[in-house]
């Protein structure tokens, strides 16, 4: 029984160390800010402009996920509730980007357009 308890303790310590290492790696990666357009996953980058706003909104209402089209790439977004409210808008998304292209969203802010005049 003592051997089992010792083995169990060693496993728990090893797992705790691995999760701490993983959390440290995420923190080291830090946040990034990416500027692009909130579009729908169906039509993607072709809606990454003011003319695609209504299409992006319609597709999202039909069940498409909101994604960020930026720099020739499409990023999935962890905060769908916030992203869908900004569908069809140019935005800056701040968060951590994982290897699969998912942005763990910290914030999304619309880009202010400069008025002509």
Looking at this protein, list some descriptive labels.
five-stranded mixed beta barrel; 117 residues; 37% helix; elongated; 3 helices; OB fold (Dihydrolipoamide Acetyltransferase, E2P); 2 domains; 31% strand; alpha+beta
Write the layout of secondary structure elements.
Blueprint: H1 2-29, E1 32-40, H2 53-61, E2 66-70, E3 73-77, H3 80-85, E4 90-97, E5 102-110
Parallel strand pairs: 3-5
Antiparallel strand pairs: 1-2, 1-4, 2-3, 4-5
Strand content: 25-35%
CATH class identity of the largest domain: Mainly Beta
Q: Give the ordered list of helices and strands.
A: HEHEEHEE
Number of strands: 5
- Unreliable runs: 17-28
Rounded to an integer, what's the Rg over CA atoms? 20 Å
């Amino acid at each position: 029984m003592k051997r089992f308890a010792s083995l169990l303790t060693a496993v728990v310590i090893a797992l705790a160390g691995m999760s701490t290492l993983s959390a440290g790696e995420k923190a080291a990666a830090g946040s990034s800010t990416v500027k692009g357009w909130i579009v729908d996953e169906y039509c993607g980058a072709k809606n990454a402009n003011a003319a695609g706003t209504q299409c992006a909104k319609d597709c999202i209402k039909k069940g498409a996920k909101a994604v960020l089209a930026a720099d020739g790439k499409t990023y999935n977004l962890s905060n769908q509730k916030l992203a869908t409210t900004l569908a069809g808008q140019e935005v800056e998304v701040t968060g951590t980007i994982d290897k699969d292209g998912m942005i763990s969203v910290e914030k999304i802010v619309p880009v202010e357009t400069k008025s002509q005049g």
